[in-house]
Design a protein that fits this description.
This protein is α/β, with parallel strands linked by helices. It is 44% helix and 19% strand. The relative contact order is 0.19.
Length: 335
């Protein structure tokens, strides 16, 4: 079954074709990240305008790269929640128009479900149940994937998402947007034990909090400036990365130990962080659990993951009509 998927929840305009939820036929991404970097983060209005300018082109290229016509596509899948609402609506409305004009079923896909499904493209043998940490610019969840379209949230951030914290710390240190890759690059030359950063304590065994950690870095930088001292950027980047990776890995591995999970996965943009991947891999091996990591190209927002999950949503009977609307927020375990 061939699914044409669309993703436009943030600053990537993407289209892709995936066969049977596992085989990548094409994957096209047009990003406005360079333009967003001028402002140190995503400007929703700019992102929405760039989506409107690019979505028809990425759709055409995704079909051309797959060697297919829209008539050969079996269904159209699209991210409908959560995300920047103006950006989401561009993708939803384009997908609705395309599905209607081509007479194809329309499949609504939750963005975080898509991130988890990115692992299916890298590991075709992966089957539920498994435990997954979904960490990105807007989300940090520990999720038990009980079935292809059934999820149970065990833990989440109570304030800021991990990716958001990376972006804020990068700006504070004068590093470029997006923050995750720039902090990781600086950390390679730094000492992860140079700065003693706090470990936030929160209610809920598997919940996390990054607001206080982010503020601690900001305060350290401001205090150094007031004393006329230079902050050692590489050391601070390494110390922050180490702390946030340790927090995420510890919570995920605790959930894995308590649930007896046999497979542990990562998903989302922060899943590309090398230190996090290393900690999770080492810890899961000690538990005797299999570790599943997505290819780096599938960690960030892309439409291949939406098309992959779209296949399973279609099989589960999760279809939409022209009344489908975009939503800025929605729990991953919605029914």
């Amino acid at each position: 079954m061939l699914i044409l998927g669309f993703e436009s929840s943030c600053d990537e305009t993407a289209a892709a074709v995936v066969e049977d939820g596992r085989t990548l036929r094409s994957n096209v991404i047009a990003t406005s990240v360079a333009e967003q970097a001028l402002y140190g983060g995503v400007v929703p209005e700019i992102a929405s305008r760039r989506h409107a300018e690019s979505i028809s082109q990425v759709a055409d290229k995704a079909l051309a790269d797959a060697g297919l016509t829209i008539e050969q596509i079996d269904a159209v899948a699209v991210t409908f929640a959560p995300g920047l609402i103006g950006a989401v609506l561009v993708g939803v409305n384009f997908a609705k128009g395309l599905a209607y004009s081509a007479g194809k079923p329309l499949v609504p896909v939750h963005h975080l479900r898509g991130h988890i499904a990115a692992n299916y493209l890298t590991h075709p043998d992966l089957r539920p149940p498994f435990l997954c940490l979904v960490a990105s610019g807007g989300h940090s969840h520990i999720v038990m994937v009980e079935d292809w379209c059934r999820y149970r949230v065990l833990g989440r951030t109570v304030d800021d998402a991990a990716g958001e914290a990376f972006d804020k710390v990068a700006r504070t240190l004068g590093l470029p947007y997006p923050g995750g890759p720039s902090v990781s690059k600086a950390a390679r030359e730094g000492d992860p034990h140079a700065y003693k950063l706090p470990v936030p304590h929160v209610e809920g065994k598997y919940n996390v909090s990054f607001s206080g950690l982010k503020t601690a870095v900001v305060n350290e930088v401001h205090n150094a400036e007031q004393r006329g001292q230079a902050v050692r950027v590489n050391d601070m980047a390494a110390s922050f990365q180490e702390r946030i990776a340790q927090i995420l890995a510890k919570k995920l591995l605790a959930a894995a130990a308590d649930t007896g999970a046999k497979t542990v996965c990562l998903a989302g943009g922060v899943a590309a962080n090398g230190r996090l991947r290393q900690l999770v891999n080492d810890g899961a091996q000690k538990l005797g659990a299999r570790v599943v990591l997505p290819e780096l190209k599938f960690c960030g927002d892309n439409a291949a993951m939406i098309a992959a999950q779209g296949y399973y949503e279609y099989r589960d009977g999760n279809l939409a009509d022209l009344r489908l609307n975009g939503l800025p927020t929605l729990e991953i375990d919605y029914r």
